[in-house]
Amino acid sequence: MTGEDHGPATEDRGPLAPLARPARLRPGSRVAVVAPSGPVPADRLEEGLAVLRDWGLEPVVGPHVLDGHPELDYLSGADADRAADLQQAWCDPSVEAVLCARGGYGAHRMVDLVDWAAIRAAGPKAFVGYSDITVLHEAFALRAGFATLHGPMVATDTFLQDPATREHLRATLLEPGTVRTLGLESAGSLVPGRARGILYGGCVSLLAADIGTPGGRTHARGGLLVIEDTGEEPYRLDGFLTGLLRSGALDAVAGVVCGSWQECGPYEKIRAVLADRLGPLGIPVVEELGFGHGPTALTIPLGVPAVLDAPADGGRCTLTLESPALR
Question: Are strands 285-287 and 188-191 parallel, antiparallel or unpaired?
Fold first, then answer.
């Protein structure tokens, strides 16, 4: 395994283009579970694997998922081992999808140890995760050219406790044509309008931390930015958004889709930050669409074209995929 290939999938600065979509899963599909970031509780992992089996899938667990780190208890294992699990699962032709067990912290430490040329050569597969996994979503998009799924992870409370979260992921993986319009009733227009673009994004703190790193995103012209976060005070969210704005990373973005802001403080303060930092862009902004660290986490495809509707009259806000998440 080598991490020498840092080059993005494309060098041009034109509008974002759709990325290669993976194939949908079917009963009997073999899916690998990996832990690129934080430690995984064994009991929750077993619960999650049971759900996957109930869906008719055949889960296999990466060799180092339950390792732990001898000194740094916030990591699920050594950086090289976590990278190896991801790469080996991806390059195994019998594996049709790679699902993350949980987020936490650690993806930035291992992302450059992955051989992205080998990942590209293996072709697209369904990849699911969120939170710290944002780093890997960006890497799959920029270094491999693959669409991915910002969705719940199999050893987390939201996946295990919320039926709506589980069903939306199941349908996205196995019946993607049935989940083309996304958005909970909570969704509202922070800045009204309508926009079309390629979906990208994740945890805003991770997007900000990725600026200037090898293979990091330099622009998102024509993109629909998807953001959420957890455990960040309003002033820190302000800082992350300001950093993205100052870097030029949000220049010519078509629209912004906001999810949950779990444990980030009173929502009226979060809303004020979002309005202050994103409102001047003059593009549609939808709030509380229903993804991320909240009690229900819809699965949001990244790298595919979609239309964002934020009606000015208080009508339902939606995100409509122009093609199914998986082919």
Answer: antiparallel
Q: Is the dihedral of CA 196, 258, 223, 281 positive or negative?
A: positive
Architecture of the domain spanning 181-321: 3-Layer(bba) Sandwich (3.50)
Cβ–Cβ < 8 Å for 159, 264? no
Q: Tokens 């190896």 sit at which residue?
A: 84
Q: How far apart are CA 21 and CA 304, in angstroms?
A: 8
Strand ranges, E, within the chain: 30-34, 58-61, 97-100, 126-129, 148-150, 181-182, 188-191, 193-203, 223-230, 255-262, 285-287, 300-302, 305-310, 318-321
Q: What residue spans define the domains of the chain?
A: 30-178, 181-321
The pTM of the full predicted model, rounded to 2 decimals, is 0.95
* More reliable by pLDDT, 314 or 188: 188
Q: Which of 62, 75, 71, 154 lies closest to 107, judged by CA? A: 75
Phi, then psi, of 98 in degrees rounded to 5: -125, 120
- Write the CB contacts of 161 (distance below 8 Å, at least 6 apart in sequence): none
Residues belonging to the active site: 131, 228, 293
Name residue 254's amino acid: A
278-305 tens-digit pLDDT: 999 999 999 999 999 999 999 999 999 9
The 10 Å Cβ neighbour count of residue 272 is: 13
Q: For residues 191 and 174, what is the distance between their CA atoms, to the nearest angstrom?
A: 34
User: Which CATH class name applies to 30-178?
Assistant: alpha beta
The answer to whether the CB of 64 falls within 8 A of the CB of 45 is no
Closest CA to 274 of 298, 309, 295, 250: 250
